[in-house]
Amino acid sequence: MSELFAVILSVPTITPIRPSLAPAIIKSLIESQGFESKVVDINIDFWNNFKDLYGNEAFFEVNTYLTQDGTLSEHVKNCYHEWINKWANCVLEFDAKHILISVFTWQAQKFTKDFLSLIKSRTSSKIIIGGQGIGEVREQTSFIGPPLYAHKMKQLGLIDHWIKGDAESTIPLICQGIYSGPGIDTDEYAPWGPLKNQPAPNFDDVKIHHYHSGDPNGVIPIEISRGCVRECNFCDWVTSAGGFRSKTGKQLFQEIKNYIEKYNCRNFYFVDALMNGSIKEFNTFNRLLINYYRERGWPDRSINYSGHFIIRGPHQGWKKEYIELMGRAGANIMVVGVETGSDSVRTAMNKGYTNKDLDYNMNEFVKHGIKLYMLMMVGYPTETRKEFEETLDLLKKYQVHVANGHIGGINFGQTFVIEEGAPIFYHPEQLDLKGIEENKRPKDVFWINPKNPTLTYKERILRRIEAQEFAIKLGYPLWRGDSQLLWLMNKYKEIVNGTYNEHKIKI
Questions:
Q1: Where does 127-269 have alpha helices with state H?
Q2: pLDDT for 503 beyond 70
Q3: Which of 95, 155, 221, 429 has the most crowded CB, counting CB atoms within 10 A?
Q4: Residues 279-307: pLDDT tens digits?
Q5: What is the reported pLDDT for 310?
Q6: Could you tell me if 184 and 173 are in contact, meaning their C-beta atoms sit under 8 angstroms apart?
Q7: Rounded to 5 degrees, what are φ and ψ at 41?
Q8: Residues 259 and 408 in one domain
Q9: Do the beta carbons of residue 115 and residue 88 sit within 8 Å?
C-alpha cells in the first residue's frame, strides 16, 4: 500500500444534520494531484456514540465543555480522555504524511487543542489546520482579522502550518511540498480559488446516512458559488468571501448525478451564501435535472434541494418560469434574508429588493411547492417603532402561508450586531452610528444612532422578545428562539454588570 498523503479530520462540534463539505473538497483536491487521502469523521462519532458509551449526562457535560467555558467533573474527564485517546490512536495508526484538521467554527477549537495535545509529540506527520474556526473566538467566527486561534496553536507547538482561505489555491501547493505563500502561515487570505473545472467533492469515506437529517439516505452538502452578488452592509461576506464566482450549472448537475448514482442520495443542501447568484447557471442546473428525470422515466421533484436564496423581482430579470423550473427540479426550502417588513429599513440595509418582490416570489413558491424559511433581524440602527410594526404586519400577512405549510420556519437570531468585516463596520458614518464609549468605534452591540435615540440595546431586546411572542401566537415554526432569548438576556446582564467579554471561550 502506498503512503497515505493525508488523513483529513472532521472534529466536534459541528451540528450533525449533514456532513461538512470541506473534508470532501480537500480529499478530491489531494486525489486530483495523484495522492491518497482518508477522511475521518470524529464529529459524527461524538454525536452518535459518546452517550451510548458514557451516558447522557457525560455527553451533555462534554458538549458544554467543548462549546463554553468550564471544566469537567473527574468522572466525565476520565470518559472524555478515554474517548479522545481512542481517536488519537486511530489517527496515528494511519501514519499519514499530513494530518489536516477542518476547524469549522469556534465550536471545534477546544476539541482540536485537546486532540493535538495528545498526538503532536507522537507523530512526524505535518499537522495543518484550516477553516473559519482558526480565527478569533467570537459569537460568529470569521476569517476577518488575524487567525488568532492558529497563531495560538503555533505558539503552543501543536501545529506545523495553517491555511487561511480557499483550499483550491493552497492544497495543490502542499501536495507539491510548498508550505509557504499567501494563505499558508500568514494573516492574509489565500488567493480566491476558482470553482470551474475543479474535481467534485468526494464523500466516499463519510457515512452520510449516519447524520441526523431525517432522510434514511442522508443529505449531501453542495455549492454552486462562493461570495455574493449582493452587498448588504451588515454582512462580512462582502469583504471576506472573495467576490462572487460560480460553477457552471452543468458542473453542479454532474456532481449531483454522481451522488445520486453512487450514494443513492436524493437530498441536497446548498451551503453557499446563495444558490441563485448566477441566474443563467442556476437555470441550466434546474433544466438539466428535469431532463435527467425524463430520461429515466422519473417524475419531477425526484430529488430535493434546499439552501440560501436571494429575492429578485421581475425588473431584475427574475421570471416566473424560473421559479417553475425550480419547483419541478426539486426546490424545497429556500432560506431567505427577509430581515424586516419595512422597505425603508431594507433599503438602508442595501438588501436590493422590496416587499413587492418578496410577495412576487412567495406567490410563485406556493404555486410550485416551494417553502420559505425566513431569516429576520430586529433592531437595525434605522428601525423606528413604526418600521418594527411593519415587520409584525408582514408576519401577520404571511400567516396564511404558515397555515398552508409554505413557510418552513423563522429565525430571529439575536439583534443587530456590527460584525468586523461588514461594510458598516468600516463606514459607520453612513448610518451616523457612534460608539457607546468616547473614542471607541461602534462594534458588536456597542453602538447608538443619535438620529434614532430610543433604539437602545434594552429596546432592541424588548422588540426581539415581542417579535418572537407575536410569531409564536401566529403559529410560526420557530428555530432556537428560547436559547437565543436566553443568550440575549445573559449578554444584557453581563453588559450591565461590566463583565461582558465578546470572546466566547478561552484558548
A1: 148-155, 171-175, 237-240, 249-263
A2: no
A3: 221
A4: 999 999 999 999 999 999 999 999 999 99
A5: 96
A6: yes
A7: -100, 85
A8: yes
A9: yes
3-state secondary structure 28-53: HHHHHCCCCEEEEEHHHHHHHHHHHH
Question: Across 288-330, where does the E strand assignment appear?
Answer: 304-308
157 shares a domain with 291: no
Which three three-digit cell numbers place residue 249?
Answer: 450549472
Which spans in 427-480 are helix H?
457-474
Residue of 187, 133, 191, 188 lying closest to 167 (CA atoms) = 191
Does 324 or 501 have the greater pLDDT score? 324
Task: Judge if 95 and 236 occupy the same domain.
Answer: no
Residue whose entry in the numeric block shows the C-alpha cell 499519514? 96
Burial profile 287-308: b = 16 or more Cβ within 10 angstroms, e = fewer: bbbbebbeeeeeeebbbbbbbb
Contact 130, 163 (CB under 8 A): yes
CATH of the domain at 142: 3.40.50.280
Shared domain check, 256 and 171: no
Count of residues in the chain: 507
The string of pLDDT tens digits covering residues 4-16 is: 999 999 999 999 9
Placement of cell 421581475 in the chain = 314
C-alpha–C-alpha distance, residues 403 and 163, integer Å: 47
Nearest CA-CA partner of 205 in 403, 359, 44, 425: 44
Q: Position 234: which residue type?
A: F
Pick from 105, 153, 162, 101: nearest CA to 133: 105
CA angle in degrees (0–180, nearest 5) for 350-245-278: 65
Looking at the DSSP assignment, which residues form a beta bridge with residue 268?
220, 305
Structural domain boundaries enclosing 404: 216-497
Q: What is the distance of C-alpha 446 from the center of its chain? A: 25
208 in a structural domain: no
Indicate the helix (H) or strand (E) that contains 284.
Answer: helix 279-296
Q: How many CB atoms lie within 10 A of CB 94?
A: 16
Task: Indicate whether this model's pTM tops 0.85.
Answer: yes
